[in-house]
Task: structure prediction
Amino acid sequence: GEWCIVLDGEDAIVRYDRCGGFSVERVLLPSMLAGLLANGTLPGAVVFYGREQAADIALLPPSLQAKAQWRRGNLYSALLLGESPGSALNLLQGEFAVRLPVARWWREWRTVAAVFALAFGLQLVATYADYLKLSRENLALRAAVESSYRKAYPRGAVVDAETQLRRQLASLRGSGEASGFVQLVERVGAAIAGNNGTAIDAINYNFSSRGGEMRMNIVAADFEAVERVRSDINKAGLEAVMESSSAQGDKVRARLRVGDRS
Result:
């Protein structure tokens, strides 16, 4: 093996194996080295760091002087030139390993953690209660929609009452024929209602791409009442043409063709 001796002022630092060494006063170095030789084997070399080569080598026992490799330097030089060990000794292991202060953190934050956990639990309970309440309300609303649908359409299967009801309503009001007929009857009805003693006896409605046309038979008190009805219909923005008229007892029956004004 190899020994290393470093003189640091009035002290000497000795390392005699991988994990063995000591520090001693300079004047006691010869005695300590002699005792070390008596209890061990002779090293292959002695690396000596000091200031004065002759005085430093004289501190070694005669058996070590021939093996001395003197170098000028101090402890820093020895550490700088020393060989790095293949694997350093890890002192931070086992019970000395670095651990996170989990216990201390728990003591400091357990109150806050408990409050947070309680609040989170209450929020979960409240959210679940709202979910159950809304689910019941949703079922009640769906039952009410289905009930309303059954009142309007008692027959047939119900898959989605709301969608089916919307489609039925759209089919009733979405076509040009239905909307044109309703508007035409509304305007003609207003003209008829403004003439007392006049009533509609029959209606025939035809719808085409050019619009709707209605033929109707009316019963009035006299020919002047028929002419007033025709005039009122024209004033409503429509075009009324008398196709025929005839006396029927004390009443007059007339046939009018009514459509949009061209």
